[in-house]
Amino acid sequence: MNHIDLALAARSFKLGRALRNSTVRHRRLAAKPLAIVLWQLGAEPFSAAAIGWGDRHAQLEEAVAGEPRNRALAFATLLKFARWFNPRFEAHSADRETITRGEYKFTVARTAPQIVVANPGTVEFLGRLGRRLAYLPTEGEFAVDPALIQLGRHLRFLWDRHAVPGQQLVVALSDLMNAHWVTPQSTAERNSLPALDAFIEPPAGVSGFDAAAAAELCPAGPVPDGEDDERLMPLVQAFNAARNGSTDPAVIASLIVPIAEHYRPLLRRTWDLLWRCRDREAMLPEARSVARRWDDDRNAYTRHMDWMIRNGLRRTRQTPRQAAMTLRNLEEAGRLMEAEEACDDPLRMAAYVLLNKAVRGQVIAVDPTYKEQGPKRMVCRPLVTLRSPDPCLIPVGRELWWTGDPAGREFVVEEVRPSVGRGSDVVLKLMTSSVTTLPSVGYAATFSIHTTSSVWPGKMPETDPWTHQAATPPALVESLEDAHAEN
Amino acid sequence: MSLSPQTQDRLDKLRGNLPRRTPNVRVLADFSQNTDCSLATLGFVAGMDFGHLLRKTRYQAAFSHSPFAVLRGNTFEEMLREKDYARTLTLIREPLGLPAKGVRVVNLRTEFPAETDRMARRLQKTNDLLREIIQGKPSAARWIDGAVLQGTVGGVSAFFEADALGAGTSGEIRIAEVKSFPKVDDRVDPDQLGSALDQSAVYVMLARETVAKLGGDPMKRVSDRVMLITPRNVGLTPTLSEQRVTARIKRIERVFAGIPEADHVVAATPADVSFAPVADTKNDETVRLKALHAIADRVGTSYTSGCLASCANARFCRERAIRAESPCVTGTAAVRLLPEVLTLGRAESLTRGAKPSRAETPAAILLEQAGRLIDEAASIPTPNTQRTT
């Protein structure tokens, strides 16, 4: 928590409603996302009890397993979902653009699918389902429909991708809203989508706190409320007694009705909440750098689809080398996202101004022809003087980037002198003489530590150092199915 | 150790007509998060189940367990007992160094039918079995299902039921915990693992106390490497994992030492305080809540956002904290950033430039600037550029 969020939380407390901590939306929301709602049984983390899906609010399709602990019934439910999901997820891969990088040419899908879910808990659940399905056999006694395996591998990719900061292929709405709204609620309360939504848009005349206290009792899944499972228990027992071990769809169809009735309002509740939240966020204008991150997403999606043709399997445990690379990439993605969000959004930048990691003010002088002695001859080093209304505590010599060109060259703080009132005049020197753009006199400008140009990651050693050598090689990935257990 | 009759009587009055809740590891783990709170301490010492206290009011806690989870746990435990513990023995044979045949297993859960002194008798039996192990008798039990250990909580002795105790042929005693959450790709859910290991650490500590009383060397006899039996992958096939819990034992010892003595708590509590009118569901909700507010006012509470996960009274205390505009509603980070600013309402006026008191000044400077930056951010024009020549 920083002081900007704290000040917003205090104001939001007074108001009884949430406040935005961003002036724009920092994630893309696709026009036709693939929305998914999931419910599990308590303590059955690898089987979906009920699935709801669709690509618009008005069209919710449902599938209920009845007895999700039974493999045949659980897989039959997932298969219904896979038949809808797979073609829609894969379709984007067909339409490609060719990109040339020097002598190297490759194709990237023009569009990518977007999956929308209520919360990160649902993404984790999708990842677990993916883990279960992706490695199933297609031959032998326990062979399953290839569509299930296909689904598993897609879900595994999406779960992996979800760890990347700023990615937009999987949008967990509670994360999206937490990144854009401030409430005086605690972190645990804010992670509950119903409670957060209630604080953002409480019913007329009700304070955010009262609305959230009522809403938090109705979870959005996938882990059910204990009382809901209490009501479900006798239905499942009756279902199991009536089907008498049968998993034949013809037998199940009529018996499953009470269980489907049980899940219908639960699926509907989360479904409506999910779309209400998504549509509310979609109304805001999109930030400038979202497009750059969407290109990254398209790239990742294209690589996954190309890999699917060859095999599509991923390790469940990385080698030390992979882990080091992954961590580095995640950190770089996080840094870039923070920089882009701050440069796109003055409200985000405010937190850095407060921390003396950025300075903002009015440009009072620009000297584009200023020259100083270089290593051999005189070089041009344009100067910009900024009048900050607050005292500037940034030390001389610190490198800063102009938010108007965060991917460009750095400015160095040349001089900080007291100005009118409590403010400071800050002289910044651009460290290049090549043609570039500069802020104009009389306009507001911000210089911060954030740059969106990437840094060379450094070279990995040829052989892993002994500190990073695993004692035992990672085990081969195996199917999670247990031949004996069957209910 | 037991309580004085006066204290006992007072505690009974505090609880009203409700049965005493005996502290088990879970209750203890929850309470260890709230030891700063006088109300939680009073409830814990009195054996008051806060889950009952606010039942049928709007502050009723949302902690309910899925019956499917309970069923899964029971099914898994039963499976481990099948065929004279065949599956269990396969798992523990190697780590305990047990022979292929002739391993004595004792099930204390079924040995003593429901009687009033059942737990005391199980404790006695556990102690007898442990003595045999320490003495190195060849016929000693190697697996005690449902062993009962004794601990002292706030000056009152209590029974703790361990899932199982294992004993190696070398006489080493190992704590085993049976959990039904799955282990996949050599990993289990870190939160669930953490609480399982915390529970095991309690049993290691208590087993060491018992061994010391029986004349054995506690550190040498009782291993801090606990065994965790969980299903593997999506089925219920059991698998064994082992982990050392040295650091957790240290923490648990501090938690036990930090629980105040019941006598002291009772002495510090006003004589007419009782939870009875609050817990009585026949009373009107307003009456019940008013009674609890009165107790909370006199005893004192200490709400933090973490309470919501561990205390059944948390939603009630949260409401009080909101009415008091306390920054603890938002979390400890907010409290830290607001030194000497007592309410969120006050923080709000400081963001709008209200004149701070001397004590408030450090926080107020930043709040004022933050407020100004927020108002400014709404009105920043897009940057204009010019080309250098």
Mean pLDDT across the residues of chain B is 89
The helix/strand class of chain A is alpha+beta
Strand content of chain A: 15-25%
Evaluate the radius of gyration of chain A: 27 Å
Q: How are strands sequenced across the largest beta sheet of chain B?
A: 1-2-5-6-7-8
Question: Helical segment tally of chain A?
Answer: 14
- Lateral arrangement of strands in the main beta sheet of chain A: 10-13-16-15-14-18
| Largest interchain contact | A-B, 74 and 65 residues
Percent strand of chain B: 5-15%
N/C terminus separation of chain B: 89 Å
Number of helices of chain B: 18
Shape assignment of chain A: globular
| Share of helical residues of chain A | 40-55%
The main sheet of chain B comes to: 6 strands, mixed
Explain what you see:
By secondary structure, chain A is of the alpha+beta class. Chain A is 41% helix and 18% strand. Chain A has a six-stranded antiparallel β-barrel. A five-stranded mixed sheet of chain A has the order 4-3-2-7-8, sandwiched between helices. In chain A, strands 1-9 form a two-stranded antiparallel ribbon. Chain B contains 18 helices and nine strands. In chain B, the strands form two sheets. A six-stranded mixed sheet of chain B has the order 1-2-5-6-7-8, with helices on both faces. In chain B, helix 17 crosses helix 18. Residues 381-389 of chain B have low confidence and may be disordered. Classes of the chains: A alpha+beta (487), B alpha/beta (389). The interface between A and B is large, with 74 and 65 residues. Strand 17 of chain A pairs antiparallel with strand 9 of chain B, so a sheet runs across the interface.
